[in-house]
Amino acid sequence: MQDGIQTRCIVIEDPHEPTAADLDNIRTAGQVIKDGGLCAFPTETVYGLGGDALNPESSGKIYAAKGRPSDNPLIVHIADIKDIEKIAEDIPGAAYILAEKFWPGPLTMILKGNGTVPPATTGGLSTVAIRYPSDKVAAALIRAAGGFVAAPSANTSGRPSTTTAAHVLEDLSGRVDVIIDGGDVDIGLESTIVDLTESTPAILRPGYITLDMIKTVLPDAYYDPAIIDPDSGEAPKAPGMKYRHYAPKGKLTIVKGEKEAVARYIAGLAVQKRQEGAGVGLMVSAENREFFDESIFSVVKTVGEERDDGTIAHNLFAVLREFDEAGVEFIFSESFDGGRLSDAITNRLLKAAGYDVIEV
Ligand code: TXA
Ligand code: MG
Predict the structure, then answer these.
(1) Of all helices (H) and strands (E), which one includes residue 63?
(2) DSSP for 290-338?
(3) Among 189, 192, 170, 153, CA closest to 40
(4) Would you say the CB of residue 159 lies under 6 angstroms from ligand 1?
(5) Which ligand gives the minimal distance to the CA of 239?
(6) Is the pLDDT of residue 318 over 80?
(7) Residue 346 Cβ contacting ligand 1 at under 6 Å
(8) Would you say the CB of residue 108 lies under 6 angstroms from ligand 1?
């Protein structure tokens, strides 16, 4: 463990338009990574915990700082499409098609590695995960760090991913050299992962770039069965998908069904648990908020609007962390299905709930 490192914070006022002074600071942070240190930084999806992807010691530090199992590989972040050729081989045409359409952006590709990225970063796999983020601060940092930055989400392993620098400090203060504070991230859920190492492109993790969007350029693309049904008997191809994830400290249960019936059922559960003397938190949509009077249900969090589920994606991890702060023992959430991002949201919510779903 690296507790005890003096964590330095660099604040970027407007991450969409970094100033010359900001870029100077980012270069300094890049040098920290080049020298084998760790720097947490914003991306358009979630905050990343960055180290030199080509330096096995840096990757070792990342695993230690997060408390992450070392068979769970890291994504290599680049800031130039051509750099895929420096770390991957047998690159299929599909990779260039996806890069052209979605990079820079919230999409990660799995390609066959050429041996340049060490096993300490790839979890010993022969493949390598690569992403070119659109966030300007992230791209500047990656260039300053030498072009290849390994970065998992900047949270303690098992906790919700971080979407603000304050969350990163909460989990990693004293375990990372630098945190670049670029404010609240744009999207709030991690990148879509597409495996291009088999004949048909498979989505291993749903995200902001949806299956339908990918199908517009790669019509054969499909979901890896393991992400749709945890009981499918298929081992997930993304090793990280098998671990308990995003979990708040309270026991989370999802209640699924017709809107008003769900609201009534959640209210009943909340009253029952409170009568038993337990602390209860409710996670609801703006549309259902009126059903829950705060004076009766105490910890009620509006996660976003169902009619614009980008707001739910954006707030989900932050709200799960707020329940930890409130110290509730039970959390009941609506399910948020039907919108553009429902696959990505549901995937995170199910993991956070350990697949505990009540259908009403
Ligand atoms: O949006 C994101 O992707 C964020 C930001 C920081 O870029 N990063 C992120 O990293 O979510 P992480 O480590 O939390 O999740 C990476 C996922 C894990 O589930 C891991 O198992 C999978 O990617 N992965 C990495 N390399 C892989 C590989 N070669 N084959 C299959 N899955 C891989
Ligand atoms: Mg993660």
Answers:
(1) helix 56-66
(2) GG--HHHHSEEEEEEBTTBTHHHHHHHHHHHHHHHHHT-SEEEEE---S
(3) 153
(4) no
(5) 1
(6) yes
(7) no
(8) yes
Region 47-69: what's the mean pLDDT?
97
Residue-by-residue DSSP string for 173-208 = TTT-SEEEE--S-SS-SPPEEEE-SSSS-EEEE--S
Ligand 1, residue 189: give the atom nearest the CA.
Answer: 1
Residue 320 above 50 pLDDT? yes
Q: pLDDT tens for residues 127-165? A: 999 999 999 999 999 999 999 999 999 999 999 999 999
Mean pLDDT, the chain, as a whole number? 94
Name the nearest CA neighbour of 333 among 275, 285, 278: 285
Instruction: State whether the beta carbon of 110 lies less than 6 angstroms from ligand 1.
Output: yes
Nearest ligand to residue 111 Cα = 1
Q: What is the mean pLDDT of residues 280-295?
A: 90
Judged by its nearest atom, the ligand closest to the C-alpha of residue 69 is: 1
Ligand 1 pocket residue status of 241, Cβ below 6 Å: yes
Q: What ranges make up the beta strands (E) of the chain?
A: 8-11, 39-41, 48-52, 75-77, 88-89, 107-113, 127-131, 149-150, 178-181, 192-195, 202-205, 222-223, 251-256, 280-285, 299-304, 330-334, 357-359
Q: What is the pLDDT of residue 3?
A: 67
Instruction: Give me 312's structure tokens.
Output: 């739910």
The response to whether residue 111 sits with its C-beta less than 6 Å from ligand 1 reads: no
| Position in ligand 1 atom list of the atom nearest CA 113 | 29
**Among 304, 316, 108, 315, which Cα is nearest to 209's?**
108
21 by Cβ neighbours in 10 Å (0-12 / 13-18 / 19+) ranks as exposed
**pLDDT at residue 237 tops 80:** no
E strand or H helix at 96: helix 93-102
